[in-house]
Amino acid sequence: MTEITASSDTLHIVNKAPDHPRFGTFLRALSDTDSVVLIEDAVLACTDPSLRLPKSCVALTADIDARGLQDLQPAPHMISYGDLVRLTEQHEQIISW
Amino acid sequence: MSKAIAYTIVITGAPWASQAPQTALMFAREALLAGHRIDRVFLYGDGVHLASALSTPPSDETHWPRAWSEFLEQQNIPAAACIASALRRGVIDETEQARYELAASNLRAPFEIAGLGEWVEGNLKSDRTLYFHGSH
Amino acid sequence: MNTLIVVDQPPYGSWAGREALDMVFSLAAFDQPSALLFVGPGVNWLRSNQAPSGINQKSVEKNLSAAPMFGVEAILADRSACERFGLTEATLVAGVTLTDSVPDTLDGYRHVAFAG
Predict the structure, then answer these.
(1) pLDDT digits 0-9 by tens, A16-75
(2) Would you list the domain boundaries of chain B?
(3) How many angstroms separate the CA atoms of A82 and B97, rounded?
(4) Are residues B123 and C3, on separate chains, in Cβ contact within 8 Å?
(5) Distance, in angstroms, between A73 CA and closest chain B CA?
(6) How many domains in chain C?
(7) For residue A31, how many other CB atoms are within 10 A of its CB?
(8) Is B88 annotated in the active site?
(9) ipTM for the whole complex
(10) Which residues of B touch C26 (CB under 8 A)?
(11) CATH number of the B6-54+62-132 domain
(12) A28 contact residues in C (CB cutoff 8 A)
């Protein structure tokens, strides 16, 4: 396994539905190079292309599946809980929204 | 092998009002599987409801407080509920029951009642402090 | 290890802001550099002349005014949110620093956290 180098960019973990005011605050706080993980209700954002999430944005598979969003087109990039752990290894600054 | 990381996990969302305890538990299990350490779990705000010994969901539903207790005991991870959050919301240990002359106590083992100093210490000691919030 | 605690909920309707204040006071009590950032409806914490006796709550304005004394290093607020809620120099409590860029403010802190 390769050595993990911590990124100086922020990892945003978002659990609020897209209509929640904090989701808007999160969008405004986002920098180009940041990483984003959508979990829980936030995976509903994958149904709305007008939200303009970064290309690198990923969503938790279990939450996507739970809400019947498996077949979305375009398909969101999906990750496991283990992948989420790896993302937290790689980022020293993490904000849970 | 990548470097092992130590986490403090803070849960602020209540069971049955949010997914926070469930997501946090899945994360914690995977973190240990990846060879990392969890220094402590701290319950804050509505998250303290996870430490109630009186939660009684229907038997065909996951019992989040019990699942968390079992995990913490198996892995020997210290866990505390914030004293101010817990007392306001009626999550009480025997010491606080005696201090305030209350009718009962209901803190689920192995959770303890502690001040926010535990959280501050976690921030300082752990490589990462990770929050699991409610959905409201 | 500087920490920014963010408040995005208005006062009195919920306890989240008070619990955010407890977090920042605890950091200060343990000599950890800390600051508060008010965004969105959370900026309503910063309005002067709060008189909550009619709803039987303690004034959060009074709570907040103790922050510098406890060692909280800064009280920051999103300028655009203040404008949205009609907060002007005249109606803001003393000691608030307005920020034009929430992302830049967040970047300045190692830890950024909400109370809930």
Answers:
(1) 999 999 999 999 999 888 999 999 999 999 999 899 898 889 999 999 999 999 999 888
(2) 6-54+62-132
(3) 40
(4) yes
(5) 26
(6) 1
(7) 13
(8) no
(9) 0.94
(10) 115-117, 119-120
(11) 3.40.1260.10
(12) 102-103
